[in-house]
Amino acid sequence: MPSALIVDDARVIRILLTHRLQELGFEVVEAANGKEALEKLDQAPSVSLALIDWNMPVMTGIDCLKAIRADVRFASLPVVMVTNETEVNHIVTALEAGATDYIMKPFTPEVISEKLLLLGLIDQPPA
Questions:
Q1: Could you read off the pLDDT of 45-54 as tens digits, one per residue?
Q2: Is pLDDT above 70 for 9?
Q3: N or C, which end of the chain is more exposed by having fewer CB within 10 Å?
Q4: What distance in Å separates the CA atoms of residue 110 and residue 94, rounded to the nearest whole number?
Q5: Is 3.40.50.2300 the CATH number for 3-118?
Q6: Which of 99, 53, 109, 107 is nearest to 74 (CA)?
Q7: Residues 34, 54: contact at Cβ < 8 Å?
């Protein structure tokens, strides 16, 4: 079973993403900030997807993304930024830092499914 790391300081977002990813067949690991996310990745290096918020305390999502990309173990890990940051320069910054894709909040469960389908991480969305 594939596993996903959800990184967001908002518990409600973690719950929403966890629910959707579990529907899609993922085991889920959660972190409330970038520093915690890096610790979770060290404990579970077989994670097959990371969904990361941008604005978090302790370590931001963009700093977490840069740290993930600096670690050769995670060079091919799909990392999707899921954030309120909707300005084009934020999207460009995330993609240049190594984000695989970008989802803007608020999002629907269908948006999550569509992104994962496009990334080849699921075969088809749930009915």
A1: 789 999 999 9
A2: yes
A3: C
A4: 22
A5: yes
A6: 99
A7: no
